[in-house]
Amino acid sequence: MRPPEFWRADVSGRDAALAIRALLTPVSWVYAWATARRIETTISRHVNVPVICVGNFTVGGAGKTPITRALRAKLGPHAHTLSRGYGGRIAGPLRVTADMQASEVGDEPLLHAADGPAWIARDRFAGAQAAAQAGAHVIIMDDGFQNPTLGKDLSLVAVDAGFGVGNGAVFPAGPLRERLSDGLKRADAIIIMHTSGETATERMWLAGFTKPILHAHLAPVGDIPRGKLVAFAGLARPEKFFDTLTDLGADLEDAIPFADHHPYSADDLALLAQLAEERGGQLITTEKDAARLSPEWRARVAVLPVTAKFDDEAALNALLAPIQSRMKASHGEA
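Now predict its structure.
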C-alpha cells in the first residue's frame, strides 16, 4: 500500500488530516492494545544460534532489506536470512532458491537467495529451526520486530530519515505498527536510513533513547544507463528511487509509482513499454521490483542495485561483536 498523506508529520496541521486521524484514532487504540497484548503474553522460543532482527516501527519500507544484506556480508557465508515471504503463496518453512518466483516466496527473499542461504516461514520459529538444522551459524530476520514468537538476540530498527515515524500515531490513524514507547524499549539500536538529497525529519521522538543510533545511506552499485530513462517502482516510497536517479544525473523522462510489492500484470508491463517507446527511453527499476518480473521482462528492463553503507562501521562492529563471539565460540569462526 502507499502511505496516505495524513500519515506524514508535515501535514498534521491540515483540517482534513486532523479529521481523518480523529475518526481512525479509536481503531488505532484497539490495534495498539492488541499488538501490545500479543507481545506481552507470547512466550518467545529460542533456537541454538544467534538471531538478529532487522525491523521497523512503521508500516512499509524503511531500508530493512539492504541492511539485512549488509549484515550478511559482514557475518559470512554461514549467515542465513529469514523472512515471512510477504506477497508469496507458500507458507514455509522453505529454503528459497533463485529460480523460484516472487508469487511463490515474495520478492525480498529472492534478493537474499542471490546472496546465500535464505528461508521463508510464516511461523518464524519453525523457519529459524529449519535454518539452524541446515547449518546456519547466525540467522538474520528481515522484518519481524513485532513478532514475538522467535526470541531475538539483537533487534535493530530501521527508520527512514525522510519519513521518520510519520505523525506518531498507530495504524490506521498513523503508520506505527505499535506504540512508539513500546518499540523503543525493545530496540537495541536505531539505524537511520538516508537517501542522497533528502531532508531528514525532526527526531524529537528519539530524545530519550539512550542506546546506539547509527546512520546509513543507500548507495547505488554501478553506473546508471546512458540516455533517456522511464523509471517505475512499487515501493512504500517509490519517489526515493526516482530522486536517487535524478541525483545521479539520469535523464529521467518519466516516473511511474506503484504500490509496495505490486504484482506487475501483463497490462501493466505493456503500458510501461508503450510509455517508454513514446518517450524514446529505456525502462529502469529497482532490484526488488525486478524480482517480481518474468525472466523475459527482466532482460528488457535496466536495474539499479543499491547497498547500505554505514557512516560509522566501528559502531556497527561493536553491535555485532557479541554475536560474532558466539559464532566463534560455537564454530571457531574468525
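The chain has a mean pLDDT of 91.
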